[in-house]
């Protein structure tokens, strides 16, 4: 049985859809920029703590979380190094960071993505760039691509027709893992903060 006493924060929780699942493992804090969205999340999930505001300006104590989850947020912050450094400070020694980021080569080559809205920050990473950034602070234990998806060119045919053709015979995750190295549009990183005595 896994632990149920962890202090967990989701940075960039949006509507809070993941927070109830995280709450199975401990006490959860969710944070996002929009007051209104966070307010509605708090009404729906009173047992979870929600904090609204610019993450880089919010005051979270150092070494206060066992697990940090951040899904597709880093591409939308102004200072990537400062963002990762803050996550590092907030995490306890031995703690875990689970981060997802858009996979730049896949989105640029194989997907029709509208340009960012006026004022929107968007800076996608490739696998090597994300590893280099995270490695400045963390022990990057896993970094892999998931969610193969494409909406133009040959990958669209491969991921659409081929996946549909074989989906009944092969578990979806196996298909996803087989195709992800080339076509996964999401990079997943599992990182650990080293203990001082390690």
Structure write-up:
This protein has 198 residues and is of the alpha/beta class. It has one domain: 3-Layer(aba) Sandwich (Rossmann fold), CATH 3.40.50. It has a seven-stranded mixed β-sheet, sandwiched between helices. It is globular and about 40 Å long.
Architecture per CATH nomenclature, i.e. the level-2 architecture? 3-Layer(aba) Sandwich
The helix tally amounts to: 7
Calculate the terminal CA-CA distance, rounded to whole Å: 26 Å
Derived structural class: alpha/beta
* Cα-atom radius of gyration: 18 Å
Give the full name of the CATH homologous superfamily. Vaccinia Virus protein VP39
CATH topology: Rossmann fold
Overall average pLDDT: 82
Q: What is the approximate shape? A: globular
SSE string? EHEHEEHEHHEHHE
Topology of helices and strands:
Elements: E1 6-11, H1 19-22, E2 26-32, H2 35-44, E3 49-52, E4 65-71, H3 80-90, E5 91-102, H4 104-110, H5 127-135, E6 139-148, H6 153-166, H7 172-183, E7 184-192
Parallel strand pairs: 1-2, 1-4, 2-3, 4-5
Antiparallel strand pairs: 5-7, 6-7
Explain briefly what this protein structure is.
By secondary structure, this protein is of the alpha/beta class.
Which key features would you list for this structure?
Rossmann fold, seven-stranded mixed β-sheet, alpha/beta, 198 residues, 7 strands
């Amino acid at each position: 049985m896994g632990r149920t006493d962890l202090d967990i924060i989701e940075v960039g929780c949006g509507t809070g859809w993941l927070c109830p699942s995280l709450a199975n493992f401990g006490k959860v804090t969710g944070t996002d920029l929009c007051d209104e969205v966070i307010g509605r999340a708090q009404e729906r999930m009173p047992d979870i703590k929600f904090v609204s505001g610019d993450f880089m300006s919010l005051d979270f104590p150092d070494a206060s979380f066992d697990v940090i989850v951040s899904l597709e947020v880093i591409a939308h912050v102004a200072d990537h190094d400062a963002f990762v450094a803050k996550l590092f400070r907030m995490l306890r020694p031995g703690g875990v960071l689970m981060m997802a980021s858009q996979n730049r080569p896949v989105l640029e080559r194989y997907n029709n993505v509208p340009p960012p809205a006026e004022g929107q920050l968007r800076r996608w990473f490739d696998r090597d760039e994300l590893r280099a950034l995270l490695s400045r602070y963390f022990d990057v234990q896993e970094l892999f691509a998931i969610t193969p998806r494409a909406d133009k060119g040959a990958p669209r045919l491969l991921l659409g027709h081929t996946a549909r053709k074989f989906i009944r015979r092969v578990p979806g995750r196996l298909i996803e893992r087989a195709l992800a190295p080339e076509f996964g549009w999401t990079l997943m990183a599992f990182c650990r903060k080293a203990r001082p005595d390690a």
